[in-house]
Write a structure and sequence with these properties.
It is a single chain. By secondary structure, this protein is mostly helical. The protein has 20 helices and 2 strands. Helix content is about 65%, strand content about 0%. Strand 1 and strand 2 form a beta hairpin. The N terminus is likely disordered.
Length: about 500
Amino acid sequence: MEGNNASALQKGIFRKKPINPEDFKSSGGLARVLSLRSLIFFGVGGIVGTGLFAITGVAASVNAGPSVTLAYLISAIACAFVGLCYGELSSIVPAAGSSYTYTYVTLGEFIAWIVGWNLVLEYSVGAATVAVSWSGYVASLLHDLGLSFPPRLMASPFETLTLADGSKVSGIVNLPAAFIIIVISLFLMRGVKESLKVNDVVVFVKLSVIITVITVSIPYIKWENYTPFIPPNTGTFGHFGWSGVMQAAGTIFFAYIGFDAVSATAQEAKKPSRDIPLSILIILAICAVIYIAFSFVLVGVVNFHDLLNDSAPVATAIDKTAFPWLKIVVKFSIIFGYVSVLFLLLIGQTRIFFAMSRDGLLPPFFSKVHPTYHTPWPSHIFFMFAIAILCAFLPIAQLAHMCSIGTLLAFILVCIEVMILRKTHPNEPRKFRIPGGNLVPILGTITCIAIMYSLDSLTWFSMFTWMLIGLVFYFSYSRKHSHLHKKHF
């Protein structure tokens, strides 16, 4: 009897979703409004900004020093391998849910749950990190304009602030960070099509600003800031040296997160099998060039020691130039540009929740679609409150180091899944196929494992704690309510 129960349990939790092309034709009530151009602008707008405007300072000052540029290159290479794998999988399974859905088809329900659950954490923490950095740039801009906002209401309780009189106090709550999350979430609930119009303008402004900053900053580079390019290790793993470069690569891997969120919008793309893989590759190429060039200039203008706990490193760099008018323009543009980053993170996150709910792994409430706006409004409301609380009470350094590990796990599985589906579904139509056999998936797996291994203990602890909560939820609710479980039993 016990053997039969164990067998039933195993079949239930590892049951795989079939690859059914008819299922992919349904949008699930979501509006198909995303063209190839929209996907590229959506991805570039969502990716470019976070690494440059927030994470660079943390990774350079704590882990890599001037070699943060090298860390960006390592992460770009890893993302290129993984991006190719996403391209092939998205051409086979053009459905919402990104790597969660790919894993459900390939490795089964239980592993898919782990992937989806971890991605929920990554996108939540990612959006919170962006919101905290946005708040930092708002504070910098207000200072330039001669305006003031109570500093204790722009910092978490875990941050120590030095006031104008030299006294040190703790923050209370980061109100601007929570505010921007609420505003963007409410806007996204009104529809993706409306959001795209704003996104196109934001991306144009953002890229113009980045090119301007690079151009005007080059004359202010101090070449001594690059020496030593890889600072010697302090004796602690991850604090400079090659271990620091790898840990920085793991931290700023978050800066490239976004191309995977593009695949989560498959049920809103007009031609998902063609446009999703193509847009992913174009997005990664554009972002890698921008990140590497910009980070090199940034650490040349500002000594990496001066970037410690700096949530607005670009503002610090602009302060080194002799263009007062540019400081205000650039900082305002960065504040405006963060909108597209939050668009991508919040949309990608809610679509994964939407897909998990449609499969029965989450309450059906989260897969409800607004009858007029065609958006998963309950998911938006849930994450609006959850992320607002995160960014209101946690500092950016804590958030930044929590951003990458779950996504790296998903990326490793995606690379493995490409090789598995080639064996199990060799004749399944693929509009995009990675050349070179299994070489790219293997390299992607190895690279992501190396970066994942280099992350600090706090990051690992955060993931395992979150996974433990997820396992309790899965075995108490999701396993019994899974649509595939119900069909079998």
